[in-house]
UniProtKB/TrEMBL annotation:
The chain crosses the membrane at residues 36-58, 92-114. This is ABC transporter permease. It comes from the Bacteria. It comes from Bacillus thuringiensis subsp. medellin. InterPro entries: ABC-4_Integral_Memb_Prot. The lineage of its organism: Bacteria, Bacillati, Bacillota, Bacilli, Bacillales. Keywords: Membrane, Transmembrane, Transmembrane helix.
Amino acid sequence: MISTKLSKFIGTSQEDYYAFSSLNLKWLELKRQNSLLSISSIMVGIVFFVFMLSFLYFRLFTDLECDQEQYQMLSKLGLRQKELKQIVTRQMIILFFLPIVVAMVHSSFAFLTFHQLGQTVSKEMSVLQSSIVVLVIFICM
């Protein structure tokens, strides 16, 4: 590019009398910074997602026999089927709701990052458009 050739020729250090700065070079620098942030946040999201899946799998299958014994004892004590279903529903909500909340918080930060990235590239990218981009990437994975 012309801007990189000019910056090499003129120099950008403060010792030189002349300095060269262009909008294109600033845009490339911002793009590098945002891409590093995006890659690191995506990697953290993937690691967290895999961790939560393995945790849920482990928890579900290790507690299966213990839970069956508990529910059998509760039904022997005279707990009705409706009350037993409420207890199971509450436990499952706690088990599966927490990872979903954490994933939503992480996705909201990803939406904001894509929104800021869209503004630095001089394109007006709404939160809806950035959320669609994140969802498409999530579905492709």
